[in-house]
Specification:
The structure holds 2 protein chains of 2 kinds. Chain A is mainly alpha-helical. Chain A is built from 12 helices and 5 strands. The chains are: A mainly alpha, B mainly alpha.
């Protein structure tokens, strides 16, 4: 090997090899901590997640906030679009990975999904706890004329365009998360004003975005972590529908109505 | 608050003109019978009809098929999206999972779907402004300032795009090399050259220009390009499957160049 070999640069992960095999790791270190030699057995899942994303051990309140958020997001339930997508894989006996890929693809979106969370985190980065700034942003969202693979937003990020009022689980999550977060406490206090400005009730994406902001995650990190945290429900519901089989899964047999293009009313 | 009225109205009710399967009888696609109305239409024609609602003629099918054949079918596992398909092979995952993920990864920023949609948007924006009397050099300068580059110009890895001559040759053969947007793409390249920006045209803008000259909207072109890399991905996956497992570009531990915090104790912090 005369030529200098290319390397993977990382601030997160370091490995030392086994003496008998340069491709087998003997030591794995995450941000300086010995993962299998010390961290395993001592750090909780939420603490380790925080370490991976932030490179630092979380304060107890941060770990608690992330753990509670992870519980809140773990299963949006089988009616939710990303879980529905996973179940659509499960019911036909698709590979398990494809069910999770389906959940990721749908749960990535801008209606209740991870990209909406990222956009909501961007709102927090701009407005913080300035109610006037929030009102201005919600009533006059910044126009972005640059086209992208993502479509334009159709509702204020973090709010539920189909909600009649703030849903009970959203309020319950907010009430628990605020115990470890000044940001979420502010959100709970200002919720009526923010909802009035948005014209929609606060959604779970809005709560999640506030929690990610409190944890110091940027929009990209929040998007990734939201994708990840929503997967458990998708996994188990896909497995469940695989077991029930396609005959017991909605097909919407009479739900599709084919019309001529000229018969369609613009929405 | 709008409330859930739209959801209530949509319950068990999907009204569409796009198409449907009538079990045991037929399939309708955008108002046409799949078994009756598309006889002889190549798959590429059907794909374009599904996306645009317009049946392409033979020349257009050759053009769009040529875009994929010439420009987007590189069987090289070093390319990042192809590498996903190859890694799925070397890790003994399935072809469908590997290809599905590789196609999703192709929605990238430095190549693939983002440059595609931004390139066609750039051409439409600039052409509109030129028709209103704007100066191209000024528009290019503004684009560079606002977006730190001009989509479709410049290229990672190698500055010259080897796909342009063969694609142009096909476009010339079909009579499509002199359309409004193809000419605009070359005019932008010339403007960048005059400004000494050293950013040559890459294939993204030429393909976008050819599609724009065929009347494709930004989203139609984006949809058309979604599967465009797939022909190059299969060989990468198959090759990795045919070799001993785990042997595609293995990395020894020392190939991780760690740049993070020094070793520390979890208990101490």
């Amino acid at each position: 090997m005369s030529q200098k070999q290319e390397v993977i640069h990382s601030r997160i992960w370091e490995e030392t090899p086994e003496p008998d095999n340069p491709f087998a790791a003997a030591g794995c270190f995450c941000a300086g901590y010995d993962v299998y030699g010390e961290l395993l057995g001592q750090a909780g899942w939420a603490e380790y997640l925080y370490l991976l994303f932030k490179g630092e051990k979380p304060a107890p309140a941060q770990a608690r906030l992330l753990e509670n958020l992870a519980v809140a997001l773990a299963n949006p339930g089988p009616r939710e679009a990303s879980v529905h997508a996973a179940m659509s894989g499960g019911t036909g006996g698709s590979t398990h990975a494809s069910c999770l890929m389906a959940a990721l693809a749908v749960g990535a979106g801008q209606l209740g999904g991870a990209h909406e969370v990222a956009l909501a985190v961007a709102c927090w980065q701009t407005c913080g706890t300035d109610l006037t700034a929030w009102r201005e942003r919600l009533q006059n969202p910044p126009g972005d004329d640059a086209i992208d693979v993502w479509p334009a937003m159709e509702h204020p990020p973090g709010f539920d365009p189909h909600g009649a009022s703030c849903a009970t689980p959203v309020r319950q999550t907010l009430a628990v998360l605020k115990e470890h977060s000044g940001i979420l406490a502010w959100l709970e206090r200002q919720r009526p004003d923010l909802e009035a400005a948005a014209g929609h009730p606060l959604g779970m994406t809005g709560v999640a975005a506030a929690a990610f902001f409190e944890l110091g995650l940027d929009a990209d990190q929040a998007e990734m972590l939201h994708l990840l945290l929503c997967l458990p429900g998708a996994a188990v519901h896909a497995l469940e529908q695989r077991e029930y089989g396609w005959r017991r899964f909605p097909f919407f047999g009479d739900g599709l109505q084919l019309v001529d293009q000229s018969d369609l009313q613009p929405s | 608050m709008h409330g859930p009225q739209r959801l209530i109205d949509s319950e068990d009710r999907w009204i569409t003109a796009m198409g449907a399967w009538f079990p045991g009888r037929t399939v309708v696609l955008r108002g046409k019978d799949l078994f009756r109305d598309f006889q002889g239409l190549p798959w590429m024609g059907l794909l374009l009809y599904g996306i645009t609602g317009r049946i392409p003629d033979d020349k257009q099918i050759r053009l769009f098929e040529g875009m994929w054949s010439i420009c987007t079918s590189f069987p090289d596992p070093r390319l990042w999206n192809n590498r996903v398909a190859a890694l799925a092979g070397t890790a003994r995952s399935t072809a469908t999972l590997g290809l599905g993920a590789a196609i999703a990864v192709s929605e990238a920023t430095i190549y693939g779907r983002r440059p595609d949609i931004k390139a066609v948007d750039l051409l439409y924006r600039l052409q509109r402004q030129l028709e209103q009397g704007a100066d191209l050099d000024q528009l290019v300068r503004e684009e560079l300032k606002a977006r730190h580059g001009v989509t479709g110009f410049g290229r990672p890895i190698h500055k010259n795009d080897e796909r342009i001559p063969p694609m142009l040759a096909l476009a010339k053969e079909l009579g499509y090399a002199d359309g409004t947007y193809v000419r605009l793409a070359f005019a932008i390249e010339e403007s960048l050259r005059r400004g000494r920006w050293r950013m040559n045209m890459n294939i993204a803008v030429l393909l976008a220009a050819l599609a724009a000259d065929q009347g494709f909207s930004c989203r139609e072109y984006y949809h058309f390009m979604v599967l465009s890399f797939s022909a190059g991905m299969f060989p990468c996956h198959i090759d990795a499957m045919n070799k001993p497992e785990g042997t595609l570009f293995p990395l020894r531990c020392e190939r991780i160049a760690y740049q993070g915090p020094a070793r520390r104790k979890w208990k101490d912090t």
